[in-house]
Each structure stands twice: as C-alpha cells, then as structure tokens.
Write a structure and sequence with these properties.
The chain is mostly helical. 72% of the residues lie in helices and 0% in strands. The protein is built from nine helices and no strands. The chain is globular, with a radius of gyration of 21 Å.
C-alpha cells in the first residue's frame, strides 16, 4: 500500500468517526428535547420511556444505549442548565467585575430558565442531582464539576484579589451550589411566596461569601 493510499484511508476513517460522533450527539439532543417537551406538557411521572422514544422517533434499544435510566436523561437536562449558567458567569467575568453582581446576574438567568419548567420537573431535577452526588461520593459515578456553577468564578476572584487569598474557592463553590439546589427546591415548592429565587439565593450566597472573606482564626500553636 502506498503512503497516499494509507493517508486516504486514514482520512476516510476520521471522517467516518466524526460523522458518527455528530450523529450520536444529534440523537442524544433529539431524545433530550423530546423528553423535555413531554415532561413540560404531561408531567415527569406520567411520561414513560416509550413515550419519549415515540416522540423522538427512535427505538427503546437506542434510548437505553444513551440513557440506562429515565433519570439519566433528567440529570442530563439539569447538567445542561448548569453548564449554561457556568457560561453566563464566565462571560460576566471578562474585564472588570464584582463577584456578587456576577452571582446575581447568573442566578437571574438561571431563574428565567427554570420558569419554563413545571415545579414538579424542577423538584425531580434537584432530587436527581442529589442522587448523582451520592453516587459520586460512593464511587458509583464520576464527579461532575460541570454541576458547580461558580467554581471558575471564585477561582478567578481569588487569583485576581477580588476574594482574599485564604479563601478555599472549591469549598465555597460547593457550599454555594448546595444553596442553589436547596433554593430551587424551596422555590419550586412555593416556599418563597412572592420572593424570587434570585432574590433569596443571591442573598444567601452573599452571606456565605462574607463569611469566607473573614480572616481565618489563628492556629492553636
């Protein structure tokens, strides 16, 4: 085989692999969109895998190839929402920024996204997030940093001096995420009445950040 023939064969293989990857991403996207549309229209609990497959035009076998459980597609929807919020926070840190202003603007965008979904669906997404976190802790699932909305924001803030150098950015991000998850759960359940998700949760995170800004206590030694 000549070098040119080998190169042509490799190129074809790469193109075929790229096509298959693109097709795989499109199939997942179609399944996610079909599930989300059905959940918004008919509710999460009453929508079956068969319903999602019919709406997406795929077989059950193909569904289970991408998502072993219906809950896995629910987690994927939640993950996309968190990634979009991370992108918002990232964009807002270009140039001059103030940490709390970025937090509030990001949460406001997240709330607009949540308002498109029925409360039941938000509650299910929060609970699936908790279940995934438990599986990650026990080693049954890989850690998913994409679910931490403000980790990059806090890391940059420490590096730029917006937050004191003693601040543990990773721990702050994890605690802020717990406030976001609990805030979404209580907001969906109607616990905040006429107060918005952004108003309550941004205030909670502001208190958290204020605590982290305090200098660490002197060591016992």
């Amino acid at each position: 085989m000549t070098a040119g023939a080998a190169s042509t064969g490799a190129d074809r293989g790469q193109r075929r692999a790229s096509y298959q990857q693109a097709r795989s991403r499109e199939t997942k996207r179609v399944l996610i969109q079909a599930a989300l549309s059905l959940w918004r229209a008919n509710g999460y609990a009453t929508t079956t895998v068969a319903d999602i497959c019919r709406a997406a035009g795929v077989s059950k076998g193909l569904f289970y190839f991408y998502f072993p459980r219906k809950e896995d597609i629910l987690y994927e929807v939640s993950r996309h929402s968190s990634e979009a919020a991370r992108d918002t926070a990232r964009e807002l840190t270009h140039g001059q920024y103030e940490v709390l202003a970025v937090v509030t603007a990001t949460l406001n965008n997240l709330e607009r996204s949540m308002r498109r979904n029925p409360p039941e669906l938000i509650l299910e997404m929060v609970m699936e997030g908790y279940r995934y976190a438990y599986r990650a802790i026990t080693g049954a699932a890989p850690p998913d940093r994409a679910m931490l909305i403000f980790d990059e924001l806090f890391e940059r803030a420490v590096a730029s001096g917006e937050l004191p150098p003693h601040v543990d950015a990773a721990r702050l991000a994890r605690l802020a995420q717990s406030l976001i998850s609990e805030g979404a759960r209580h907001w969906a359940a109607g616990a905040y009445q006429d107060r918005s998700f952004t108003e309550v949760v941004s205030a909670d995170i502001a208190v958290l950040i204020a605590g982290f800004r305090q200098p660490p206590p002197p060591s016992a030694g």
